[in-house]
């Protein structure tokens, strides 16, 4: 995934630069063009970097799943430099895989495929280490693989298996699969679907963007807004579409579509499929090559489940609660996905999203470029509106005698047909709906209902069943058995079960269920182990874990709907079929349990650990995150632990703490048992659940300033005072490396900016720059006075840290260009902040911090803005630019002042000339300053 995404990003960067250079070539004079041609381009820098990368063989060893691909990449290079004629060369796919390939070979192949490099890279020193004469010869026997397919071999079972397990390496091979999928026989179409969803999608990073585009196109109907035509087309391809859907439904494959930005288009392709097959009678079926029957309910459930994964349906409503605000919907909605899909297609002019500047084969173009809206899918839209209503309030409006009422009765009869005749009817007394009369006994009536009709009735059936269980008219075991029968009838109903139970937990109106092992399953067998591992995971953070045991017993009780949901999930057998649906409910169950009061999530983890030991690491990690959900002090302590780990002040090597911050995963597969979770990874899992992130700005400033002091103290600690000298800032120095200290400070500031950005996004960054930073400078800071902190050097270091921190936060939020939508919000916040800065320079505002800190902040902020984000300067008001430049001139920072005005554009040229005349007179030697301002001026202290 990283090989594919990173290379695509490099393509965009190089294309953007070369396009700009081409535009400049047309506009400027020939002497200017000649001068620009000597500059190093991004393409040249890429080549230099990849050549230099060969010096780090210890970092380039391929992970085990990639060894074969790396060896094949090395073999390809070896064959090209061997001097053999093209007709003498064996196919790379058919050669033995023992050519000592590494990750650099894979990176170079990815770049060559995307025209970033040419095959002259194979001639780099040390790139090819094995000659053809030393390499083993080709394989004997029948030749299988992509070369056979390209030569016209029929799709035999052995060839199909080979193509599924080996990724395609070129666009021509992808085109061949597309031809089979469109024009082949039914069996060949199914085989093509399996091939394109196999290793080609998962490991074919050289052509992965083409794979995801092709799969999306194959799933799409030619005219989705025409319901009759669309449904006929889709139903005729039922088996083929189902194979594609199952092939991309795994967690890894969904992630690939997400990383390539294809989720909106994939969702737009799935909606017509859901609409069509959800409206079919279950009596319509298709016979698979294996002889099994495929029903419309099965195809609908597979497509619907995948669609819900794409728009993060699993996020529970409680996860979005802030304070006392009641949630009414999800952050990502089907309408939003369609809006993005329509925008993408309109922006690309109907072409594929990738390589929009280059011509792609027509078979990769979307089937339809027309916009889609929820109104085109009335059944899906109706279900979605009902989902929103269930989240917002309790159920109402079920009228006896209506079709929905009749379906509810049939569902309850099917779910609880084993209950005795004298049992009382199950009535949803809580919702105010009429009593659902009837005896819930007898045989399965064989519900012959459309999937959409079943989904519409499911919430009312759940309401009746849960209410009956709460009033003792239905045992927990009977409730869970009935829910399992409903899920077996229509697996897609798991989505409604998940959303209904989540909403009911959010409302908090149900009594807790005691997980005692009699009525509900008991977590007692694993609860102590879960608690121990949670404590071990966060031991390094200094955070205390609330005990799960009180007075020798454990408080194993959770809300009734949550108990029903977890009991339902553990009834599933862990096989390939059930996993698809558990991956829909599982993340939602974890998010819901983590949002509930302690210790709901540890109880869920203990229950599921008993069911699936292989998932214990993942579940305990979720339970560990719960400790931080409702405890602000714990979050602050975790952030401090992140700073401690990345700075690694006991080491003389700067930057080696990154491994400690992010770790190397978690789990019992590491030597020595369960490995503690790295603080950075833990915070990435915690930050979304922090309810009020505004407190982080003030805490972050405090932690950052403390870190600067720690960095300075650590330098002095390693050097005896008698070896230190005096500097002009009155700070002792000697063996202390100021460069190492500055590097660590930049590292700390970058970490702080990253945490602010991922925690609160644009709003938190704007609050920091517009409000918190000015407030911090105005306030009087009474820091602990120590020998090292009583000097001007540490105060200066603090100012630089704040400057780098502020610039990084702004770059994350607004970008450094003027193209992205977020850049339009930059001028107001940045303008207000620089007005404050100018007012301090003018003497209109007094600061409370150390003057060295303020001076370092101002010089650092302006220098970094000029050097790294010059387009920001164009957003600044001319009056503010004048005031800043005059202030810099008064501090003898002439070059920086002129560079600032130079980036202001035409509007600031008069001011720049006036400043030059005022400060240097009319001497021609001084007037040349305006023509010789350095491109990246740095203040003297840097």
UniProtKB/TrEMBL annotation:
Annotated Gene Ontology cellular component terms: mediator complex
Keyword terms of this UniProt record:
Membrane, Signal, Transmembrane, Transmembrane helix
**Transmembrane stretches, start-end:** 747-769, 790-814, 856-874
| InterPro entries found in the cross-reference section | MED33A/B
> Which GO biological process entries does UniProt record here?
regulation of phenylpropanoid metabolic process
Q: Which residues form the signal peptide?
A: 1-16
What's the protein called, per UniProt?
Mediator of RNA polymerase II transcription subunit 33A
């Amino acid at each position: 995934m990283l090989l594919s995404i990173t290379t695509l990003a490099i393509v965009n960067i190089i294309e953007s630069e070369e396009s700009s250079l081409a535009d400049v070539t047309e506009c400027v004079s020939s002497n200017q063009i000649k001068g620009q041609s000597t500059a190093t381009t991004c393409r040249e820098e890429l080549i230099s970097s990849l050549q230099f990368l060969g010096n780090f063989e210890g970092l380039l060893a391929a992970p085990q799943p990639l060894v074969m691909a790396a060896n094949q990449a090395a073999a390809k290079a070896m064959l090209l430099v061997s001097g053999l004629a093209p007709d003498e060369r064996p196919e790379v796919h058919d050669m033995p895989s023992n050519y000592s390939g590494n990750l650099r070979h894979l990176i170079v192949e990815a770049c060559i495929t995307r025209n970033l490099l040419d095959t002259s890279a194979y001639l780099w020193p040390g790139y090819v280490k094995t000659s053809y004469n030393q390499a083993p010869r080709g394989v004997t026997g029948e030749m299988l693989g992509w070369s056979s397919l390209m030569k016209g071999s029929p799709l035999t079972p052995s060839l199909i298996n080979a193509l599924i397990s080996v990724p395609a390496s070129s666009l021509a091979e992808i085109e061949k699969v597309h031809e089979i999928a469109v024009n082949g026989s039914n069996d060949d179409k199914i085989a093509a679907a399996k091939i394109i969803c196999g290793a080609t999608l998962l490991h074919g990073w050289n052509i992965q963007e083409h794979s995801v585009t092709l799969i999306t196109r194959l799933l799409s109907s030619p005219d989705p807004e025409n319901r009759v035509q669309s449904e006929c087309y889709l139903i005729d391809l039922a088996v083929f579409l189902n194979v594609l859907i199952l092939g991309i439904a795994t967690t890894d494959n969904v992630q690939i579509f997400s990383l390539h930005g294809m989720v909106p288009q994939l969702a737009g392709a799935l909606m017509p499929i859901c609409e069509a097959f959800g409206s079919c009678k279950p009596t319509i079926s298709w016979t698979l090559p294996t002889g099994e029957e495929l029903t419309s309910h099965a195809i609908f459930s597979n497509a619907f489940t995948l669609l819900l994964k794409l728009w993060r349906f699993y996020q529970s409503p409680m996860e979005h609660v802030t304070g006392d605000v009641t949630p009414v919907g999800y952050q990502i909605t089907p309408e939003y996905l369609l809006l993005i899909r329509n925008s993408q297609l309109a922006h690309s002019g109907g072409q594929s999203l990738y390589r929009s500047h280059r011509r792609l084969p027509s078979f990769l173009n979307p089937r339809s470029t027309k916009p889609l809206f929820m109104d085109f899918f009335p059944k899906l839209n109706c279900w979605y509106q009902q989902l929103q209503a269930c989240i917002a309030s309790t159920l109402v409006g079920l009228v006896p005698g209506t079709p929905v009422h009749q379906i509810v009765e049939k569902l309850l009869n099917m779910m609880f047909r084993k209950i005795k005749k004298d049992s009382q009817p199950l009535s949803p007394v809580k919702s105010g709906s009429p009593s659902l009369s009837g005896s819930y006994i007898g045989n399965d009536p064989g519900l012959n209902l459309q999937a959409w009709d079943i989904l519409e009735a499911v919430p009312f059936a759940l309401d009746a069943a849960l209410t009956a269980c709460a009033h003792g008219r239905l045992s927990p075991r009977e409730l869970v058995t009935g829910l399992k029968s409903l899920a077996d009838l229509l697996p897609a109903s798991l989505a409604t079960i998940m959303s209904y139970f989540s909403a009911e937990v959010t409302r908090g109106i149900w009594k807790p269920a005691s997980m005692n092992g009699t009525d509900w399953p008991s977590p007692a067998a694993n609860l102590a182990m879960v608690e121990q591992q949670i404590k071990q995971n966060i031991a390094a953070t200094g955070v205390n874990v609330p005990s799960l045991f009180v007075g020798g017993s454990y408080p194993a009780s959770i809300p009734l709907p949550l108990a029903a949901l977890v009991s339902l999930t553990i009834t599933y057998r862990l096989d390939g079929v059930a996993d698809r649906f558990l991956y829909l409910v599982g993340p939602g169950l974890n998010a819901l349990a983590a949002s509930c009061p302690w210790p709901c999530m540890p109880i869920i983890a203990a229950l599921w650990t008993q069911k699936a030991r292989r998932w214990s690491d993942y579940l305990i990690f979720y339970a560990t995150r719960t400790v931080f959900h409702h405890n602000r002090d714990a979050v602050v302590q975790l952030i401090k632990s992140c700073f401690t780990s990345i700075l690694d002040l006991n080491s003389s090597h700067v930057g080696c703490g990154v491994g400690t911050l992010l770790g190397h995963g978690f789990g019992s597969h590491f030597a020595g048992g369960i490995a503690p979770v790295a603080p950075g990874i833990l915070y990435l899992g915690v930050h979304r659940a922090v309810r009020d992130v505004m407190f982080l700005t003030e805490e972050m400033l405090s932690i950052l300033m403390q870190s600067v002091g720690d960095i300075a103290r650590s330098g002095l600690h390693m050097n005896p005072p008698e070896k230190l000298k005096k500097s002009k800032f009155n700070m002792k120095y000697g063996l202390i490396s100021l460069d190492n200290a500055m590097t660590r400070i930049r590292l700390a500031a970058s970490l702080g900016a990253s945490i602010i950005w991922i925690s609160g996004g644009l709003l938190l960054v704007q609050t920091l720059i517009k409000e918190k930073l000015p407030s911090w400078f105005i306030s009087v800071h009474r820091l602990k006075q120590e020998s090292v902190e009583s000097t001007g050097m540490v105060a200066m270091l603090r100012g630089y840290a704040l400057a780098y921190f502020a610039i990084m936060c702004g770059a994350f939020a607004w970008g450094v260009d003027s193209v992205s939508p977020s850049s339009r919000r930059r001028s107001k916040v940045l303008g207000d902040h620089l007005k404050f800065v100018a007012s301090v320079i003018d003497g209109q505002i007094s600061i409370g911090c150390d003057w060295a800190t303020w001076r370092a902040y101002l010089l650092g902020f302006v220098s970094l803005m000029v050097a790294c984000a010059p387009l920001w300067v164009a957003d600044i008001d001319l009056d503010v630019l004048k005031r800043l430049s005059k202030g810099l001139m008064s501090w003898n920072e002439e070059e920086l002042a002129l560079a600032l005005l130079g980036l202001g554009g035409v509007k600031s040229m008069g001011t720049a000339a006036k400043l030059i005349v005022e400060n240097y007179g009319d001497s021609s030697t001084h007037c040349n300053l305006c023509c010789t301002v350095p491109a990246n001026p740095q203040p003297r202290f840097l």
